[in-house]
C-alpha cells in the first residue's frame, strides 16, 4: 500500500514537472512574439509622430534643385545680391556672401492663422569661425517685435538666441567653427522656449509668456520670412544654409533629435 502511494506521488510530481517545463518552453517561444509586437507598436507610434510633424509643417526649403521655390506653399523666394549654391548636408545648400545677399519670402497668412506655437529648424555652415568678433546668423519669421527667429549676435555676448514674444538664450557663449555643419533648432510655446544645437539643449526659458502670436509682413514688403540677414540691423550671414523647416507646433526633444538624425554628417 505504501509503495503504491509513493508511486502515485512520484507520478504526480513527474506530471507537474512536465507541465512546468511545457509552460516554460511555451513562454520562451512567446518571448520573440512579444518583442516583435513591442517593436511594431513603437514603429506605429513613430509613424504617427512623423505624420503629425509632417501635417504641421508650414515652411520647407531644401535648396536641392538649386532654386528658391518653397515646398509647402509653393512660394517663390526673392533672392537679393550674390545668391549661389554649394554642397549641403543633403543635396545642395544656399551659399551667401555676408555682403548683402539674402532671401525673402512672402508668407501665406492662411498657414499661420491661430498659430500660438512653432518650431524653427535649420542647418548652417559658417564660411569663417563665428565668435564674438564676428556677426550674426539670422533666420527671421515675421516682423517688428513679434517675430520668431534664431539669431547669433555679438551684442549679446556671443550667445545663440531664440525669439517668440519672449526670448531664450544659450547658457554659454557659442563658437561656431569654420566649414562645420550645425543644426540649429528653436521650439516656442507658452511656458517653454527651448534652444538646441545639434539636438542638444543649450538654453531654456520655462517662464516664457504666451507662445508666438505671430505678426506677419504684408504682401508688399516681401519680408514674410528672411533667410540670411537681420531685417532690423541689416547684418548678413556669410556661409551656407540648408534644410530650413518651420512647423506650427512646439516639437519635443525627441522629434528634434529625429530631425537631426536625418541629416547629421556621418
Q: Can you put this structure into words, describing what you see?
A:
This protein has 266 residues and is α+β, with helices and mostly antiparallel strands. It has one domain (52-263): Jelly Rolls, CATH 2.60.120. It is built from two helices and 15 strands. It has helices at 2-55, 253-263; strands at residues 57-61, 78-80, 84-87, 92-97, 102-105, 118-126, 139-141, 149-152, 160-163, 167-169, 182-189, 192-197, 200-205, 225-227, 238-247. The strands form two sheets. Strands 1, 3, 4, 6, 11, 12, 13 and 15 form an eight-stranded antiparallel β-sheet that branches. A seven-stranded antiparallel β-sheet has the order 2-5-14-7-8-9-10, with no helix packed on it.
Features:
15 strands, globular, 24% helix, alpha+beta, 266 residues, seven-stranded antiparallel β-sheet, Jelly Rolls, eight-stranded antiparallel β-sheet
**Strands, count:** 15
Domain count: the total is 1
- Please state the average pLDDT score: 75
CATH architecture term? Sandwich
- Distance linking N and C termini: 78 Å
By secondary-structure content and strand pairing, the structural class works out as alpha+beta
Cα-based radius of gyration, to the nearest Å: 27 Å
Q: What portion of residues is helical?
A: 10-25%
How much strand content do the residues show?
A: 25-35%
- In one word, what is the shape? globular
CATH fold assignment: Jelly Rolls
Taking pLDDT < 50 over at least 5 consecutive residues as the criterion, the unreliable ranges are 132-146, 216-222
**Element order: H for helix, E for strand:** HEEEEEEEEEEEEEEEH
Amino acid at each position: 500500500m505504501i509503495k503504491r502511494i509513493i508511486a502515485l506521488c512520484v507520478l504526480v510530481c513527474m506530471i507537474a514537472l512536465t507541465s512546468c517545463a511545457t509552460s516554460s518552453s511555451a513562454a520562451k517561444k512567446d518571448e520573440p512574439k512579444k518583442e516583435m509586437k513591442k517593436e511594431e507598436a513603437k514603429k506605429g507610434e513613430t509613424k504617427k509622430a512623423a505624420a503629425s510633424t509632417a501635417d504641421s509643417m508650414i515652411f520647407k526649403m531644401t535648396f536641392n534643385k538649386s532654386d528658391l521655390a518653397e515646398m509647402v506653399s509653393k512660394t517663390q523666394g526673392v533672392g537679393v545680391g550674390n545668391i549661389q549654391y554649394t554642397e549641403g548636408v543633403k543635396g545642395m545648400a544656399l551659399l551667401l556672401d555676408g555682403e548683402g545677399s539674402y532671401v525673402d519670402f512672402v508668407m501665406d497668412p492662411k498657414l499661420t492663422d491661430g498659430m500660438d506655437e512653432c518650431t524653427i529648424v535649420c542647418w548652417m555652415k559658417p564660411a569663417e569661425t563665428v565668435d564674438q568678433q564676428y556677426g550674426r546668423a539670422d533666420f527671421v519669421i515675421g516682423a517688428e517685435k513679434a517675430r520668431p527667429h534664431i539669431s547669433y549676435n555679438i551684442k549679446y555676448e556671443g550667445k545663440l538666441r531664440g525669439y517668440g514674444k519672449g526670448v531664450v538664450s544659450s547658457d554659454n557663449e557659442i563658437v561656431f567653427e569654420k566649414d562645420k555643419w550645425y543644426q540649429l533648432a528653436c521650439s516656442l510655446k507658452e511656458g517653454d522656449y527651448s534652444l538646441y544645437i545639434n539636438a542638444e539643449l543649450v538654453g531654456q526659458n520655462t517662464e516664457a509668456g504666451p507662445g508666438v502670436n505671430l505678426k506677419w509682413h504684408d504682401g508688399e514688403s516681401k519680408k514674410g520670412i528672411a533667410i540670411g540677414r537681420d531685417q532690423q540691423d541689416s547684418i548678413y550671414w556669410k556661409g551656407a544654409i540648408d534644410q530650413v523647416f518651420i512647423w506650427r507646433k512646439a516639437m519635443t526633444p525627441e522629434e528634434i533629435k529625429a530631425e537631426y538624425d536625418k541629416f547629421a554628417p556621418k
